[in-house]
Amino acid sequence: MSDKLKGQHALVTGGGSGIGLACAHAFIREGARVTIIGRTRAKLDSAVAELSAFGDVAALAADVSDEDAVRAAVENAARLAPLTIAVANAGTGGIAPLSMTQATDWRRIMDINLNGTFHTFKHAGAAIAEHGGGAMCAISSIAGVRTHRFMHAYCASKAAIDMFVRTSADELGESGIRVNSVCPGLVDTDIAAGLFATQAVHNDYLACMPLGRTGVTEDIANAVRFLCGPESSWITGVNLSVDGGHHLRRGPNYDAFFQR
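^ thats the sequence. predicted structure below, dont judge the formating
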């Protein structure tokens, strides 16, 4: 516990579990007020019960693919205290050969991952600028850095997020807002459960990592906390790989998912 972030107010989408919840912990343990956003009220309630032992926390239900819902959530959060930090973490995935990828799945992934980041940065960015600036961070992926066969929509959405981060950083710097992204490798979360459960795929991930281990949510949260904190006051427009070195090699082999 510290007061290094005292007076800060961090908004975290997808904050009810996984990386988002770990980010909320990283902020609140250092004195920040935290507002988490998510679609599932039960997850939000559980997260609030967990976080409230460390400081001020609020939860708002919203689907980040719905711009009106994000606008309302940001406005409600800003009424609690001026926003200074925003983390666009909410995301989803999917895997299928290109010829079998449904347009509805493509749109769903783009709506949540890319459009959700756009909605969050658009409205949170305006609120942060209104109060003199701050920092925003998106959760991207190794899939935006290296090809992942059969994950066309997910890869495209994450690569687009990284470019969106850089263009946002270029534009919003004059408003005192720093914008960065973290690109996780394979992290032990619910969304990655199938990758851990399929041994051939898990082993291939490990073979692609110089550091030889998969990640935990705190690995990502610590990087997000750094990029949103005072220590990184001269860092903006960075897409930071936090992946055990996976980005130095190749994308994973998912053939095991489609072998008969």
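The beta strands are 9-13, 33-38, 57-61, 85-88, 134-139, 177-184, 239-242.
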